[in-house]
Amino acid sequence: MAFARARANRFARAGRRVCPGPDAVPETVTVTDAEALHAEARSRFEAGDLAAARAELERLLRERPDDAELLNDLGTVCFAMGRARESCAYYVRALALDGSRQETRENLAAACRAEGLSWREVLRAAQRNAEGELLVCPCCGGSFRRFLPAGGRRKVPNRKCPGCGSLERHRAIWLYMTNRTCPGCGSLERHRAIWLYMTNRTNLGRGPIRMLHFAPRPCLQKLLEAMPEVDYVTADLDSPRAALRMDLTDILFRDEVFDAVLCVHVLEHVQDDRRAMREVWRVLKPGGWAVLHSPVDRTREATLEDPGIVSPEDRERLYGQWDHVRAYGRDYARRLAEAGFEVTCDDYLRGLGLEAARRHRLGSELDIYFCVKQGAKAGHAGRL
Prior knowledge:
The radius of gyration is 22 Å and the shape is globular. The chain has 16 helices and 11 strands. The chain has 2 domains: 5-130, Tetratricopeptide repeat domain (Serine Threonine Protein Phosphatase 5, Tetratricopeptide repeat, Alpha Horseshoe), CATH 1.25.40.10; 165-372, 3-Layer(aba) Sandwich (Rossmann fold), CATH 3.40.50. α2 (31-46) runs antiparallel to α3. It has helices spanning 5-14, 31-46, 50-63, 68-80, 84-97, 102-115, 119-130, 168-178, 187-190, 192-201, 218-225, 273-283, 312-319, 332-338, 348-352, 354-359; strands at residues 135-136, 143-144, 148-150, 156-160, 209-214, 230-236, 244-245, 258-264, 284-293, 342-347, 367-372. β1 and β2 form a beta hairpin. The strands form 3 sheets. Strands 7-6-5-8-9-11-10 form a 7-stranded mixed sheet, sandwiched between helices. By secondary structure, the chain is of the alpha/beta class.
């Protein structure tokens, strides 16, 4: 990591401080504490513990959002983790605070090359946003200067639509399913291939279908309920928004009755997620599809789960949220395939285009796990 030499020397003179760990976030961070935490992050980066280095830097960033050097270092960690698009966002923020940082410009150029982007286009898009160009929610159509912060204890700014409450994942999935993009941004013409792919994969809005939506969020529920060609069924274990009370591991429908299933950020809460995946496969018609979107840590090879981890504190520390029962790794697609699906992991934002992703606030990375049921498979229990 290319941390500035002057600051590194200052860390050496001050000596190492003990890091309190990710659970002990203080109300405020003093200058001395901040330097110690920054030094700890540098040490963890050099030791190859990228996830811990990133966690330390993100903690600091919540207290010091206008620190250009901190933003540059966080971008460098993300780049080393293979998250070049996220690193671009941090480098752009650093340059907005201090445009004279040559090191950051070089880092941005390298990250953009890795993503096949033009660093000049990235900076121009950031400048338009800084000048007050409105953000547009594709779910409710509202235009806003900024979105609301969202998250658990560690809220992230500019994520939640003030109009409908949608988060990045809801906006991206709605665009994915309906083949819609921002009017006037030109992404339809520039990315014809990805739109042809989605036209072939998704029939929403192109004829009558029956859809089952687990754990519906209002931002998507209102839109789907308003589509006359969709026979829309909602279900959840305890949500008052759902029409049916139902466990995802025991879906109360016969085999092969739905054309589509939508399940967003649910499986990471389910104890027996493999059974839930098989149940979704069972109720889909042959040729039917499902969007089974869950948070996936792409730096992790295998899913982390331990039935013995039950306390909210331990779950938040290990899985990222107090009510998650696992942290999916890169084997998530393989789990879905083992349930019988043909799985396509689509790097959707790359196909959508930088401008549309920025304008709709879709986040920096979002893989769509598009699952198709090709036919009956032996060993799957049916329901009479």
